[in-house]
Design goal:
This protein is of the alpha/beta class and about 400 residues long. Among the domains are: about 160 residues, P-loop containing nucleotide triphosphate hydrolases (Rossmann fold), CATH 3.40.50; about 60 residues, Helicase, Ruva Protein, domain 3, CATH 1.10.8.60; about 50 residues, Arc Repressor Mutant, subunit A.
Length: about 400
């Protein structure tokens, strides 16, 4: 082979080697790019998998909590009544609902504090988000932190899996803390932190999580008095008491009883699959005569019981009686039946004495029949009984 041919072969080999090196470099670059893309893809898949898992956990938690509350979601139905105090509450709901501010609902047991919380949420910008309820009075002391903030598997005996707390389930929505005055003082600081900073940790986890939750709290306690007695943190009280709404007891707005009673009669008649019985004037007189220490919840229970006990359509309310029909002046628990009386009154004298006693009670009550300060309460009889006796004895208010 000629020298020139050998030179050309070497030149071609060099070119081939150079081309191979170039192709190898391109291949290495593409492999590096593919590896980088693969790593990024794996990271993205892991991120999205974690996000899907988080959303599934939250959806499951929301579904569980909402199912728990479904049975009691309409315990009182919609807000019903036309009294000035009730209209004032509705006005305050309209004012605060769109703002997102914390609300403290105050009132005796059975007045409908949860109903007010639901109405605030329903008229807020978070209406399409969950309303999660936690009853602070029913949580065992050792499980408060887990109930509020959740826990991870193995963090304590019985923690067999990760669990979302109520704050995390309510993220982006509203959390209703019922009976907030029952929260132990040891947990109040952690509650204050999540309200102020929006940060918390699950039990047994070092990772800090963030939430955005609107708080509506309710209590039948005087929290200001609890603060003075050292049973409730002052800073937490002011954090919750941004916009207070106080619900009056039913005895202070009895003018709403007819509407409430008619509503409950209709609801329970449908539930019991019975015709709706009439609500008579005598029924309303009996309902108005009662003081309702259990408030609207007691009214609801009384009406349901009356419908069960009145299958033929005539309502009879089983209301507790304070005293017997006999006026207290005519009997004494310490009286000795064997001891002779000094004199015996004729029937006409008894009626005259009864009329005189009744007139005294009416005058002292300002001729008011119903209520704690009414004549019927003073005499220890039903208002309906007093009205009947006034008719029989021809007692009329002067003028």
């Amino acid at each position: 082979m000629a020298h020139s041919d050998i030179s050309r072969v070497f030149e071609n080999l060099e070119k081939l080697k150079s081309e191979c090196d170039r192709l190898q470099r391109e291949c290495d670059l593409q492999k590096s790019a593919l590896k980088k893309s693969h790593d990024e893809l794996e990271l993205e898949v892991a991120r999205r998998t974690a996000e899907i898992q988080r959303l599934q956990e939250r959806l499951q938690a929301e579904n569980t909590y909402l199912k728990e509350e479904l049975a009691g979601a309409h315990a009182y139905g919609e807000i019903i009544g036309e009294s000035p105090s009730l209209k004032s509450i509705i006005e305050r709901i309209d004012l605060v609902a769109p703002t997102g501010a914390s609300v403290l609902v105050l009132g005796e047991s059975g007045t409908g504090k949860e109903l007010i919380a639901r109405e605030i949420h329903k008229h807020s910008q978070l209406a399409d988000r969950p309303l999660i309820k936690v009853n602070c009075a029913t949580i065992p002391r050792e499980l408060y932190e887990s109930e509020f903030f959740g826990h991870i598997k193995g963090s304590f005996t019985g923690a067999i899996s990760d669990r979302l707390g109520r704050f995390e389930a309510a993220d982006g929505g509203t959390l209703f803390l019922d009976e907030v005055g029952e929260i132990p003082t040891g947990l109040q600081g952690k509650l204050l932190r999540v309200l102020q900073e929006g940060e918390f940790e699950r039990v047994g986890e070092g990772r800090t999580r963030k939430v955005d939750v609107r708080i509506i709290a309710a209590t039948n306690k005087n929290l200001a008095e609890e603060v003075n007695n050292g049973r409730f943190r002052e800073d937490l009280y002011y954090r919750l008491n941004v916009f207070p709404i106080e619900i009056p007891p039913l005895r202070d707005h009895k003018e709403d009883i007819p509407l409430l009673a008619a509503h409950f009669i209709k609801v329970f008649s449908q539930r019991l699959n019975r015709p709706v019985p009439p609500l008579t004037a005598a029924n309303l007189m009996d309902l108005n005569a009662h003081d309702w220490p259990g408030n609207v919840r007691e009214l609801q229970n009384i009406i349901e019981r009356a419908l069960i006990l009145s299958p033929h359509g005539r309502l009879r309310f089983d209301l507790p009686r304070i005293n017997a029909d006999i006026p207290p002046s005519f009997s004494s628990p310490n009286a000795d039946p064997a001891r002779p009386v000094e004199s015996i009154l004729t029937d006409s004298a008894v009626k005259a004495l009864q009329k005189q006693n009744m007139l005294a009670a009416l005058i002292q009550s300002g001729w008011k029949v119903y209520g704690r300060d009414g004549a019927a309460h003073r005499l220890g009889i039903k208002p309906t009984t007093l009205i009947e006796r006034m008719r029989r004895l021809r007692i009329k208010r002067p003028g």
